[in-house]
Every structure is written in structure tokens, then in C-alpha cells.
Specification:
The complex is a heterodimer of chains A (116) and B (112). Helix content of chain A is 0%, strand content 58%. Chain A contains no helices and eleven strands. Classes of the chains: A mainly beta (116), B mainly beta (112). At the A-B interface, strand 4, strand 5, strand 9 and strand 10 of A face strand 4, strand 5, strand 9 and strand 10 of B.
Amino acid sequence: EDKVVQSPLSLVVHEGDTVTLNCSYEVTNFRSLLWYKQEKKAPTFLFMLTSSGIEKKSGRLSSILDKKELFSILNITATQTGDSAVYLCAVAAFNAGGTSYGKLTFGQGTILTVHP
Amino acid sequence: EPEVTQTPSHQVTQMGQEVILRCVPISNHLYFYWYRQILGQKVEFLVSFYNNEISEKSEIFDDQFSVERPDGSNFTLKIRSTKLEDSAMYFCASTWLGLQAFFGQGTRLTVV
């Protein structure tokens, strides 16, 4: 069974701090790892990672994947109160037949709270 | 920006009643999904739908659940006889090639 574990489960910081969120996974036939931000309701897409060592960056957020050690990190620099949310890590895998229909297995999320 | 839309945003139903949750995926997407999130728990996969049939489903997706794409735009999840434990947020999602999933705002289902 595919498994995704995120740490820490919650994190409280002040504006301007830098945070690192962790995601480790055990997946048979890995295809991709995705990060989402969940505020009130829907998860919104942040990054999709498929290759080791290639950093994806969007503004103050960046992420990298290590397929050998089976983990990913999400960094947020110069945090703002608007970054407060649950950050979800999810993995997609190929099935035994080598096909992927995009099913995602999610971790439990990291609750980030940024105080002014 | 194209988005996945879900209706209703909140549904309250009595135990044993049938409910239908509706979704309009992004128009050129080919893969459609339902996930659920029980309060305080992980987002869990229910079912994927491609080429007008179920491509994968989880153990949660038993005979009480069904999905349908009745026309070119809607994608529905039906729960035939709701139980208290079906109370959750239900998310619809869609992707073009089964890669980057876009999620709807969710339907909060409360079974009383």
C-alpha cells in the first residue's frame, strides 16, 4: 500500500521566518510527487516533481525531490500571514500494468501558522 | 482561469437517503476523480474515471457509491443509502493527462 508521511504535523512561525516542510513516501512504481496548499476548502496546486535534484521554484516557494531517499521538501522563505494553510503532499504511481490514471495518495498535511 | 466547480457547497441529508454530488470538470480534461476528506483526516481517493468508465477505485468505493458522466460536462457521485460515516468533504478533481490534478471547492456532506 502506498504511504505518504509529512512532518512536522504543525508549525508556528513569525512573519519573515523561513520554513521547511518534509514529505517522505513509500510508493511502488513512483510517477510524480505533488504539493498542494489547502486553505479553507480546495487543495490548490503548487508543484509537481518527477525528477530528482531539480528544484522547482515559484516566488518564495521552492521544492525539490530526492528519489533515492524517497522524500521531498517544500521551502517557504520570508513567510507571510497569507502563507498560513495546510500544506499537502501527494504521490501518484503507475499501476502494475504500467499505466497511471492519476490517483493521488495524500499525506496527513502540515498545518502552518504564520503570526504577524 | 478554468476551474472545477461543484454543487452544492453544503448538503444535509438524513441517514438512508440518496444523495448526488455534482461536478463540472475543466472542459478539456480527460480524467476525473472523487476524493473525500473526513474532518481532521487525510484526503482519501475514492474513484477515477476515464474514457467513460471507472479506471480505479478504492476500498471505500463500495456498492453504495456510483459515478456517472451523464453528458459532456457533468460528473456526478451518487451515494445510494447514506450512513453517518459518509459525512465528509467531497472533492471532485480533473486532469488532462492524469498528471496535475485541479480540485473543486468541495461539497460538505452532513448525514444526520
